[in-house]
Write a structure and sequence with these properties.
Blueprint (H helix, E strand, L loop, with lengths): L1 E12 L2 E13 L4 E5 L6 H7 L8 E9 L2 E2 L4 H4 E4 L4 E4 L1 H14 L4 E4 L3 H4 L6 H12 L6 H11 L15 H15 L3 E5 L7 H16 L11 E5 L3 H7 L2 E6 L2 E7 H8 L3 H10 L4 E2 L29 H5 L5 E4 L2 E3 L19 E2 L9 E10 L5 H6 L9 E9 L3 E5 L6 H8 L7 E6 L2 E2 L4 H10 E4 L13 H13 L8 H14 L15 H14 L4 E5 L7 H16 L3 E6 L2 H7 L2 E6 L2 E7 H4 L8 H13 L2
Helix pairs in contact: 5-6, 5-7, 8-22, 16-17, 16-18
Length: 632
């Protein structure tokens, strides 16, 4: 069905030609579901868009993309010329226009892409229903079946109450569901899902997994029963195990292992990188959590031999000398490592003491307390005119919560239940209509001076990091600006060396050293998230509200951040985590607060929440059961 040969994605950046995807081979059969996994920044999302011949400007996709024997990039060798010495890409414009027309004609019918960044992928001018209608029209199916199918999509994705809303009125999880609804309405032969469950609560993740399975088998309303080819790009190994038959592991723009899921995930992984990814994904509550050492190789100076050489514990001199080829171990299991059968070295005892949760909080005086708190969003004039329902329901109702010093609590619940709104109230960005926000027993005053003082001691890590980063500033400038803000200084010849030294220390902590000259838009989603976390830590707050800090990250990088957070907590920082992943809540937190429809329905110590022998609120029980269905 789909064959990739010598697929290469080349981008021109800072007058340099960078290979984002490097000479990649992959075959996907008709009706097959394959998962693509790997670290943040390894090229998964670039591959997802590259499959459609899409490259960021200025850039180009080369090689062969064959769909049922027809090469999508036919004629590229004669019409694209890479001039490495002059650092430029020459493309025949007439051929490029023809390619664009071919790809445009195939979109929606032959292949469809569900991209990351749900809100930016939706038209801001169309309602949810109109967006689904537009996708259905693109599919070329009979007009008569549109209403029935769209009604079914709205019901299955819990979007019926949002049918007349616009994208800016949705939460991140709701926007993600709309994109999935568009994919179902398009009904392409090849469906590419890029992080389909990112930002979704645990119950919706289970439902989306069932939807992807039904979509693959062609059993959804409006489908003809024909098997669809599904490609799932995700950092989440649990998702891939649930929906895919085969898994392809990517590292630094190339495939390092391809095999059946039941082989790779049950002790049959052969490449050292795959083994370390699987190890990092295992659930444990002792710290430090396992992390793959080192960083991805730089694109400007890729290694000559094996790209995993510097991070591998099984290396030999030959690994550095030449690039190992893909080798077939048995039927359908390929690996890019000549030392695949060598036993993995076991790590010695950790140099730092193992920390077991939970830590004990100080119950004397709450650091932060919320008393009888209500909040609702007031519509703008434009929103009020668009909305048919002028009533504004409460986003938060009757919230009573105390957060103690050095405590770590988790706010959990479904999408749009009020978790992020509560986080904004805690940080002073939203003022409650009723009730009090108290810091160490003193009510918060909503004057500009008091709010500025409050934001120095309480910081928020945003769910969408790209929206919180200035696109016109480099990574180094973003961190240096924050350091100077904390110090109350201006950059000068006297403090430049110390500011730059501290900046490098923070970037090293989140594995971004070497990216100082990059702009946020050139970073992957995971790298942007790590940058926003580093900037938050620079300010040395007393309380941090972290809104989905591990969303979109692979297991190794998520473990790295969890280790950083736990280190900060040992130093006395208090955390409020907003999480969909209950396993992360169990790892990091002393207490769990369950929120439904803007109200706290249950709160208890973490061990009691996850104790199946104890009674729970029915809503909490549903969340726990969904987490068990996903597995650890």
């Amino acid at each position: 069905m789909l064959n990739l040969k010598n697929l290469t994605l080349i981008v021109l950046s800072n007058q340099k030609l960078l290979k984002i995807i490097d000479d990649l081979f992959l075959d996907v059969g008709q009706g097959e579901a394959i998962g693509i996994c790997g670290e943040s920044g390894c090229g998964k999302s670039s591959l997802a868009s590259g499959l459609l011949g899409i490259a960021p400007e200025p850039g180009v996709v080369t090689g062969r993309i064959e769909i049922e024997g027809v090469d999508l990039l036919d004629g590229i060798d004669q019409n694209v010329r890479l001039e490495a010495a002059k650092h430029r890409i020459r493309v025949n414009r007439a051929w490029a226009k023809g390619l664009e027309k071919r790809i445009h004609a195939m979109r929606g019918k032959v292949f469809g892409l569900l991209p990351q960044g749900a809100k930016t992928a939706l038209s801001p001018f169309l309602t949810i229903t109109e967006q689904l209608h537009k996708a259905y029209q693109k599919s070329g199916r009979p007009v008569g079946g549109a209403e029935t199918l769209i009604c079914d999509i709205l019901c299955r994705l819990r979007l019926k109450p949002l049918a007349d809303k616009h994208p800016h009125q949705l939460s991140g999880g709701e926007a993600q569901r709309v994109l999935i609804g568009q994919m179902i309405a398009l009904n392409p032969e090849i469906a590419i899902f890029d992080e389909p469950t990112t930002g979704l609560d645990i119950t919706l993740q289970v439902e989306i997994i069932d939807l992807i399975r039904d979509f693959k088998h062609g059993t959804l309303p409006g489908q003809d029963g024909k098997q669809r080819t599904v490609i799932v790009v995700s950092h989440d190994l649990r998702l891939i195990r649930q929906v895919a038959e085969r898994v392809a592991v990517m590292y630094a723009g190339e495939m390092v292992e391809v095999g059946r899921c039941e082989t790779i995930f049950t002790g049959g992984a052969a490449h050292p990188y795959t083994k370390k990814l699987i190890e990092a994904a295992q659930f444990r509550r002792s710290f430090p959590l396992p992390v793959i050492p080192g960083e991805l190789p730089p694109l400007l100076q890729p290694p000559r031999g094996c790209k995993f050489y510097e991070r591998c514990d099984q290396l030999e001199a030959s690994c550095q000398a030449e690039k190992p080829p893909m080798k077939e171990l048995n039927d359908g299991h390929w690996v890019r490592c000549p030392l695949w059968n060598r036993p993995q070295k076991t790590e010695g005892s950790p140099s730092e003491p193992i920390l077991l949760l939970p830590l004990h909080r100080d119950p004397k005086v709450p650091l932060l307390s919320l008393r009888h708190l209500d909040f609702s969003y007031s519509p703008s004039v434009w929103e009020a005119r668009l909305s048919r329902d002028r009533r504004q329901p409460f986003a938060l109702r009757g919230i009573d919560l105390e957060v103690y010093e050095n405590e770590s609590i988790a706010l959990v619940g479904e999408s749009a239940c009020g978790k992020t709104t509560l986080g904004k109230v805690i940080t002073g960005q939203l003022r409650p209509e009723r009730g009090l926000v108290c810091w160490q027993g003193e009510p918060l005053q909503y004057t500009s001076v008091a709010i500025q003082q409050h934001r120095k001691r309480v910081q928020m890590i945003w769910q969408t990091p790209d929206a919180s980063l200035n696109p016109g500033m480099k990574v180094s400038q973003l961190i240096q600006e924050t350091i100077l803000l904390r110090r109350g200084e201006r950059l000068s010849s006297k403090n430049r060396a110390s500011v730059e030294g501290e900046m490098r220390q923070y970037l090293a902590r989140v594995k971004l050293l070497g990216q100082e000259e990059c702009y946020p838009e050139t970073l992957s989603g995971g790298e942007q998230r790590r940058l926003s976390i580093a900037r938050c830590l620079v300010l040395e707050p007393k309380l941090i509200v972290a809104d989905e800090p591990f969303s979109g990250l692979d297991a190794s990088l998520a473990n790295l951040l969890k280790n950083i957070f736990m280190g900060e907590r040992v130093s006395g920082v208090t955390f409020v985590f907003i999480l969909h992943d209950l396993k992360s809540a169990q790892q990091l937190c002393d207490r769990v607060v369950v929120i439904k429809d803007g109200m706290i329905v249950e709160t208890d110590d973490v061990d009691r929440i996850f104790d199946d022998s104890l009674p729970h609120h029915p809503y909490t029980q549903n969340l726990l059961e969904a987490s068990q269905l996903l597995g650890s």
